Amino acid sequence: MEGSFSFEKVESKTDDLKSVSASLRSMADEREKEIEPEKLKVKNAMEKGNEKQIRIHVKNMVRMRHEVVNYRQISNRLDSVVDYFDKEPEKSKASIELEPSQKTALPEEDKEVKKADEASRTMADEREKEIEPEKLKVMNAMEKGNAKQIRVHAS
């Protein structure tokens, strides 16, 4: 049966999505740990007065933070997809038993998935808003040659 629907296939796919989500979370954690050495490199470059190295390491830090945010955002979205599909078989079984007039109440679950997705986007946007001003402050301080301000904003 080519077009048949199998709950086992859905469970298999949701398990795959769960493992991908977990690996993305662990990649984000690993990447977050890599930011600390970059901070030290920025500090050392500031002590030496090497602006080129400061720029390089600050850009690396910002890139790493963006990667962490992206990994976490994708992981959250995968989790909401998994939650949706975990509820979907129950929803399908229940909709078979419901009368047609009762089926209109089921889109509530879709709203929950959309809310979770929106929440993950909002968290990522807030993190993005936190990172950008810091990056600008560091770049402005670098242009002015103010090493003390760079130290404050880089940490």
From TrEMBL:
Location of the region described as Disordered in the Swiss-Prot/TrEMBL record: 1-21, 90-133
Ranges of Basic and acidic residues composition bias in the record: 8-18, 106-133
Protein's name in the database: Uncharacterized protein
Naturally occurring in which organism (per UniProt): Papaver somniferum
